[in-house]
Records
---
Amino acid sequence: MAELPEFIESGEAARLIPVTADSNKEQRAASIVLAAMRSIYELRQSMLGSLGVRVGNRARLGAWTEVTFKEEKSAKSSSKKNDRPDGLLVLDTGKKRWTALIEAKIGNAEVDEEQLQSYVQQARAHKIDAVITITNQFVAQPTHHPIKLPKNQTRNVELYHWSWMYILTQATLLLEADGISSPDQRFILAEVTRYLNHDSSGVSRFDSMNREWKDVVAKVKNGAKLNKNSEEVENTVSSWHQEQRDLSLVLSRKLGQAVKLRLSRIHRTDPQARLKSDCELLACEHVLRCELDIPHAAAELHVEANLEKRVIVTSMRLDAPKDKKKTSARVNWLRRQLDNVESEGFFVKAIRPGKAESTQAPLGLVLEDPEHLESENTEAVPTAFEVRYVTDQASRFSGNKVFIEELERAVPHFYEQVGQRLRAWVPPPPKMKSDPVNTASETEQEEEATPPDDRPN
């Protein structure tokens, strides 16, 4: 285990079984997670790897809770309990040392801006590399943060965020993928996940949209204009961003594979640009969208919540097979993949090139007869198919919790019935062509080599 830095007066080594008051759930959860990272190589590799920190086999990780800085002891006026972080990580590679302060909140508690600024100042003063917050808030990536601080305040200090559910999901994936080499460490990680899964831990999923959600849906329904810069629109999009992340974690646990949000390069690096872009989308088009990247799936999974129609649409789009010349043959290629699915609520759209008419029909009808996707107005064949699952919630759409419940039912249902069955079209390998010149030459040689009496009349 790495040693405590010189600027730390004291610290309690992170324990898997911490001795704390029942009311101090934050300290208990932080101690358990930090101790698990210290004792399980694969877990610390996964968690620190999410921050871009490489963990080698020989690197030592130290983890402490209840850390006290030396100046706090001498300057009692500055030793406020709220200014003391919940933990400290020190990764020592032998050649280099990486350090991070940890601040954890449990339940509905959140780190406020003033508190976060204090931790960043402490980190800068002691040349600590990063500040990591752990709460029940969700972000698209650990490099994003729920609180936006001015760049001049975070100079030389990286700011990261893990949700408790993110930690739980990473641990679950390691267990399900049999990614822990030591049986003893596997047992420890299983106990940690058992604790984090229990209601008493204070770890919770994102289960409700923002309080303005109902009013925003009502305004769209009544034709009122939404202001992209308003607090209600920003809060709605922020809630949607949290739900996107939770949805990807829900699918990750169900599939035993890491499901990721598909974000543009600018949105990966700039969460404020992402927020602004999605606020414009909501204000102008009255929709919320996201894309999920599922390992080895035929295509990315699209999710759209349409506030005007009050529906949730889950879909995947595939290129049609180019080696088939007729519409019916291309539709039959898709039909064979979706035989015997529960087709209620599912639709298939045949997309044609240019301005040629696209056609759509319920999946049930398409499975009965491919002619349902034929067009009377064009002979152009489909170049792509989109399979959609539409959930019409009507008045239930505006329910803060009902919306989340229905969304997290609809997306896994779509993937179970359709997504996991779809296979992308792969062009067949090229075949060897016979050479007419060589074939003729070979025939002449055979005739010359055949005795006259044996040649056919």
---
Amino acid sequence: MTIYYNEMVDGGLVREPYAMLSDWIETMPAEIRQMKQAEAEALFRRIGITFAVYGEGGDPDRLIPFDMMPRVFLQGEWRRLERGIKQRARGLNAFLRDVYGRGEIVRAGRIPAPLVYRNAAYEKAVVGFVPPRGVFSHIVGIDIVRTGRDEFHVLEDNCRTPSGVSYMLENREIMMRMFPALFRNNRIEPVDQYPELLRRTLASVAPAKCEGEPTVVILTPGHYNSAYYEHSFLANLMGVELVEGSDLFVDGGFVYMRTTQGPKRVDVIYRRIDDQFLDPLCFRRDSMLGVPGLMDVWRSGGVSIASAPGAGVADDKAVYTFVPEMIRFYLGEEPILNNVQTWTLWKDDDYRYVMANLKDLVVKEVHGSGGYGMLIGPRATKAEIEAFAERIKADPGNYIAQPTLALSTSPTFVDEGVAPRHVDLRPFCLCGDRIELVPGGLTRVALREGSLVVNSSQGGGVKDTWVLSE
């Protein structure tokens, strides 16, 4: 039987981070809890916090489930996580600078060349170009799991357009509205400075040709995108324009935005669309979402794009296995946060081991996301395992495998009261002229009893993440 680390109760005693919440939980009547839960859902609906799930019929926009019970970290726990997250972001950006340049890590034999240069996320159009301050990935979302009191592991890296920061901010706002006494009586680090930090980070990577205060915009694919709420939410909080590709045009080596006062030059584009749709003259010719000529302007230093095209090669799940080596190679340091043990199925020995142990492992597509394209062996039927095995045999290099993790549990409000549910954490690390992050992140929770899948599209929810001040 797998034993899971309970973040609230250890050895029969309530752990220090949760001590101040113990009475709050025990003294809250069920009817008050239900009323507050309904109030939270009403606030989410009024604000418009939804996510989209397509292909299942009916209205794709759904409220994301919100758990009122916060997840809590001590300041010392957070400091270690913060150091490890910043270190990892530095290593990932060093890797991106290198593989689009001289490729020293490949030349040194520390990572296989095909894994980089034949990777679907590697963009040849980026080779030889170094963006301002050498930063390729400006917002790095690092998914972290806990397996013990002092045991934290990185599950995966998100270097392109990590989503979820709007939930982090709205979770805190709603908790402060509903339970102001909790915040008056406890020293909880704030997260509301994130939009200002993001704007400052983006402004700090404006191109050298920028004149005066940089003009920053958020480029969205439009309101049908699953994360559109977040795009508009951040634009509003940052005080910048939310634009679609049709709102921008290229002229004379610069990018301009159409406004009622006439064209306005744009210096930094925080893009929330995939590489292949950015510029129909460089990538997909049928793209209606991007800006024709954008890549030429970017390469000539007329505009900055965050995160840079091609950054996705750093968050490929097979490349992920080499991030500790990147940290050693580029930074000369030992990783503060370790990876989860991972088998890469393009290696013969790993392939044989995984195929012989599918029932005990979690297998993921290298480019999969959202909890799709994966097999959780211990929860799968014999028929599901056999079917997935055939998919692996057809393309072994498209998969990695990991052990079934003993994800920690956090106390969660359920119909019966409070029960442990599995959680992970996605902090958002900002990389510009400095590397910084707010104390907290998005905690995702597997609301279904026994489930290890925290993705909202797979029945997961979110909760506020507290870091206690000293």
---
Amino acid sequence: MNEWKQRWIDEVEARQEDLLKLCSDLIRFPSENPPGDSREISRYIVDYLAEAGIQTEIHDAGDHMLNLIATIGDGTASDRHLIYCGHTDVVPAGDLSRWDFDPFSGEIRDGYVLGLGASDMKCGLAGLLFSVKLLKEFNVPLKGQLSLLIVPDEETGGHQGVPWVFDRKLIHGTAAVIAEPSHPLHPTIGQKGSCWFRFTVPGTPGHGSLSPILGDNAIVKAAAAIQALQALHNFPVQLPDEVKEIIGITKEYIATRENADFSTIIDRVSVNIGTIEGGTKTNVVPDRCEITVDTRLPFGVEPAQVLAEAKRILAEVDIHEELHPEGFQGIANWTPPTDPIVEELVQHICDVKQEKGYGVLQWASSDARHFRRAGIPVLQYGPAELSTIHGFNEKAPVRDVVDAAKVYTLTALSYLGGE
């Protein structure tokens, strides 16, 4: 390993208590989305960066959703502009009685940072903030620019976050890293597409005591629709040749690293019935039932194809209602492993962890798709206990939190010529 790398690794290691305090502080802000009020946590971040003389632009997207942009480096010696992106919002904590600890404690215990958002993604966000502040404090002469893009809205679709910023051309970079949770050796360099939709099944009301003789029960019809839509999982997929290798690598990763039996989901359509809403009263035959569906799409499949197939399937059970697309809509996307930002970050993972790392695909979706749509190569890497994300008792391993900050620091230095 180069001497300069070891010096920065040692510096982050020596300052890990400051990093972990930052993690705990961020977790203590109840930035659940919904409702999505980011004002308090955003003010804390602005003040934290100001301690190192870093100024932050605040862009209000409405509804107390604040997007933050802070940049260091003058960019006169290189046109490279690296964006470090993170989100401040977290999913709702849910039933507090089912947590073994206060979800907003930020407690550090038994080698873990504990609390809501620890893995998704406040510990990763802390690592980005810590690394940029560290580089600023040392006055590293970066040849390009390094920007923090901190967004308030990712967990509910992100419409007031990254796409809001890009639509207004508030920032543009040549590469990006998002601190979304990942395996410590395997950043995610691509993700499946998505197609969310809803539809309403009509019925005819009547007295519950006369069902099923009289009335047309919308919920019963909806049950048939739900069962029929499971066939979307078997939608035929023709993988493009250029992604077949990374698909194979990802399947092997899931089987070995995740110790899970869902590797086939990478090249198939997933189907989740998200919500069912219908009926007015127990003793009234329901006259309507609304269903929402979340499908994730492999490479080679587009949302319009899935919608058309869903309509065909529903017609077979005599449901001909309109399907309304909503939420995530997009095709599978990726950044090739040969892109400079991927090669450099993966190399630094290997240096820090002293193990072999490589990029894999993600079976879900994230803000990365907006970066790629804007022509910005991007990958995701963040500390996490993956099994606890969006669940009770969320936590992140301290060792991975510290190591991720090392990787962020080294990647910024190498990509922007500040070694």
